[in-house]
Amino acid sequence: MIKEIITYPTPPSVKYATDVRVFDAEIFSLIEDMKDTINANSLYGLAAFQIGSYYNVVVVKNESTSNFLELINPRIISHSGKVESLEKTAYFPKLSANVTRYEKIGIVYQDREGNQHSLRADGNFSILLQRKIDYTFGSSFLNKLSKEEKKLFQKKLEFGSDIAISESCPTLFNRDYIIKVINAVMIAMVALLMGSLFVDETTSKQLWGYEVYLFLSAIFLNIVYFFYAQYEGKKFTSCTSCQIGNIIGTAVISLFKLFVITLLSYFIMD
After folding, report:
1. Is the pTM of this model over 0.70?
2. Domain spanning 25-162, CATH architecture
3. How far is CA 70 from CA 12, 24, 29, in A?
4. Integer distance in angstroms from the first to the last C-alpha of the chain?
């Protein structure tokens, strides 16, 4: 039977799962319900905790074979390494967060007959198992987040979206530093232009050579700005359209100033 998965902001009906002591029809029925719920929601794993059961049961689905692994009373007994993963969970639908997990884990669990088993897991399988076992302790990945990531995730919860967050369109971008360098180059060009008015013709031609070098450098920096700005803008998709206009406008204005300075320099210095 397909069960309803508890989602935010509804609190779980139990604080933590209790170990299964009697392996009977009630447990077997729970496991089958979990399988049905996994298939109905296109999931790869489910803890009984997520459908309101207080039993310590986890069921995961093999991505390649679609077979199910039933873990009763699972415990992580060993771990090694650390890895950061971008995770989603059914409790926070449509939201994701960067979580630091163990790279490899060792688990002990029981089957339907109460027999003890152990397994080792790594990669995505390890992350899936860790996330589901977290639920058996009344936890979710929210409790695993760093201080900065938790603050960001709270914003996502507020807006109900991964992208509709206040940080999605900052007031200062890294690309702004490139513009500052371009402006500094143009100021240097104006300084050379003004200086050429007070020197002889030979020195003026030498200054023109420096002016050409600065011009080419500014052109290169504008190209770098244009492509890097678009790359940076893709990180903040909620304001992409306004960014594109701003990027193009900034590049055009910068190039216009650059060519005006260069033309004046050409007629005066060369």
Report:
1. no
2. Alpha-Beta Complex (3.90)
3. 22, 14, 12
4. 86
